[in-house]
Amino acid sequence: MEMAFTVRLLLLLVSSFFVVPILVFSQTDGKVAVGASLSASAGNNSSWLSPSGDFAFGFQQLENKDLFLLSIWYAKIPDRTIVWYANGDTPALAPQGSLVNLTANDGIVLTSPQGEELWKSETSVGVVAFGVLNDTGNFVLEDGNSESLWETFKNLTHTMLPGQDIEKGGKLSSQQSETNYSKGRFQLRMQDDGNLVLNTINLPTDFANPSYYASKTTGDLNSSTAGTKLEFNSSGYVYVLRENGEKFNLKEAETVSARSYYLRATLNFDGVFALYYYPKSSTGNVSWSVVWSLPDNICSMGVDSGLGVCGYYGICTLKDDNRPTCQCPTGYSLLDPNDPYGDCKPDFIQGCEEDELSPTKDIYEVRVMNNTDWPSSDYMQLYPFTADRCNESCFADCLCSVAIFRAETCWKKKLPLSNGRVDITLNSLAFIKVRKGNSTIQVPPLPSPGDKKRKNQTTLIRVGSALLGTSIFANFMLSAIVCLGFLLIYRNKRGKSNQHVLDSNLRSFSYEELEEATNGFKEELGKGAFGVVYKGILQIGSGVQVAVKKLNFVVQDSEKEFKTELNIIGQTHHKNLVRLVGYCDEGQQRLLVYEFLSNGTLASFLFGDKKPSWTQRINVAFGVAKGLLYLHEECSTQIIHCDIKPQNILLDDYYNARIADFGLAKLLMMDQSQTHTAIRGTKGYVAPEWFRNMPITTKVDVYSFGVVLLEVICCRRSVDMETGSYESAILTDWVYDCYIEGVLDAVVDYEVEPLQDKTKLERFVMVAIWCIQEDPSLRPAMRTVVQMLEGVVEVHVPPCPSPYSRTG
């Protein structure tokens, strides 16, 4: 438990702008005695100062008053710019009440309010006699002979200060964002060959992609021109020092003296390495100014692999201050709305398999953007070509998502797009394929047996319209051909066998087809109350992955009812529902064919080895709520799921929640007309009315959603007898007790990210408690649940969900 708590605190979560005044006490010489300590407290924030008072060491309180960052900052600047923070790539965030102590044997030690060690400086040899914060901004631990045992200058974060250097093998790491100090995807590295480079890494690993800037200060083994280290001197020069003593300045620019200005060289979260200055004499609200920055244009940096400034599909644009901004192209949106530099996602599904499944081929439109390119996503180059032909070639190619035309050359690109940028020097056109309409995120149904003939009919019509306007004779001949085509289609239609096709365009499969697709029902994906699910591949195009469910019941003499219910399921279209694409109704066999979702179930996502982020969990909760709202109120026929649980919620490629198995409860009950109140749910998620012979309404799903919402919040199963405590084994009871006692931090196991917005955390917990009320009439409808989660409707204090079991 202690180790888990420490790891969670060291996994960096979002910090914020610092707004709380910091109280300090000064030392005349910057020295700190062994035994000295500082407390992370909202009412008593103190720090250790350098002799001049320019720098401070201590806790920077974040906007959330329960979290603090152990750091060094400019004490005389209003915004208290941080230049160093403890534990580098996984910064040590400390809850209120944490302590930092200076000890003789371990140096600087950071502990939680419970006394757990969060971080220490780890001096390897010697005994610490005292610490000293120099006027250079370097905090040094020294022994009795004033020899350095440990110093912040040797433990690099994102910033260099005058007097600091980076030896071979050393690196600066960018932050993840302006307000998130965890490791970002940019590095400044002094390589062993003497070359200073800027490069991206592929998080969460340290795999380095090719550099987008290099000093080229390399040489042969015996060369005296190879670089030895990166230095930052007090005259404002940042340079690579060569073996022969020569200096290679990173940028030829006007120098700024450290005597009159504060100077810092920072690798920003967006990959720009910049030298900044700030006048020491300033008394007003002055901001940092840039002396120079590298590279000159971060958007146009030559990245051949990995990501650039913007995430996948993003487009980088350079601002006037040489800093970049990112935006998503038309038809795409941010995967995380709170991360404007993160990945974008298409608001539709595109690909050869999806195009093949579409009931119509006229599904795309083209948007044109000027001087935009994703240079590392090409898969075909066409030359010589025209702009119109480039557009048409991409439009007709299911692999092509974007085509770039420039200088008689067409570059066709496929997903995912990376390193996008806008550059007026490109003189190019970008043709972007976007699906028509607002409902294109839905997976289209598999083609029915008549689709091929309809396609032929459509082709005849298109040919006819394309040739209108030619000569009278040609039009006469065309009319004859079109009429003949319609006659053949009509005769063929009359002669075909009378085959039943559902109104919802679900495809009817034979048992043999599905047996072949699943390789004899070999690979089992899961099983539940309704049946067993197998992975399959339909031989359409290059192969379409599907999930095939064999229903574990046989309904005699009920083909009409079975198809009626399938029609209802097949007509549901929502981005938070798993799409049913076909079925088999052959003899004793009843099978359903669904789209295949590769990211598995919500259960494996929540209860696996790695805890999902709070943002991911919140998005899942909203997705499930909106999917249930659609089933209850917005689809043509109301559907009660009856078995909402994490195992029946799947995740798509972008970790959006998709509800599975909806509508199957009624299918399962068709042969049990006398037992409509038989329990259909799963232990831990079942609403009390199942046991009380009460009417089954949509409120049973609301109850189950409340339990799932608590699991999403806590990343704990609804019933967990391995917690070691009887009081916390039943999640619903334990969370309510925590809510009443005002200890919601325990509900999320002291996880920092949700605690940064306790208002939202409390709102979500209160909504869940309203959903799990034993009295169905007290539970809100799913529309109200969604509105409460969004903060649109006020959430009142909920009553005890099980008042009768808690009396006495």
Any descriptors?
5-stranded antiparallel β-sheet, 17 helices, disordered N terminus, Hepatocyte Growth Factor, Agglutinin, subunit A, globular, 6-stranded mixed β-sheet, alpha+beta, 808 residues, 44 strands
Characterization of this structure:
With 808 residues, the chain is α+β, with helices and mostly antiparallel strands. It has five domains: 1-155, Bulb-type lectin domain (Agglutinin, subunit A), CATH 2.90.10.10; 156-293, Agglutinin, subunit A, CATH 2.90.10; 315-435, Hepatocyte Growth Factor; 451-495; 610-808, Orthogonal Bundle (Transferase(Phosphotransferase), domain 1), CATH 1.10.510.10. Strands 37-41-42-40-39-38 form a six-stranded mixed β-sheet, sandwiched between helices. Strands 3, 4, 5, 6 and 7 form a five-stranded antiparallel β-sheet that branches. A five-stranded antiparallel β-sheet has the order 30-36-33-34-32, with helices on one face. The longest helix is centred in the middle third of the chain and has 24 residues, at 472-495. The radius of gyration is 32 Å and the shape is globular. The two termini are 33 Å apart.
Class of the largest domain in CATH? Answer: Mainly Alpha
Overall geometry comes to globular
Calculate the terminal CA-CA distance, rounded to whole Å.
33 Å
Radius of gyration: 32 Å
Total helix count?
A: 17
What percent of residues are in strands?
A: 25-35%
- What is the average of the pLDDT values? 80
Query: How does CATH name the architecture of the largest domain?
Result: Orthogonal Bundle
Runs in which pLDDT lies below 50 for 5 or more consecutive residues are 1-27, 438-503, 670-679
**Total domain count:** 5
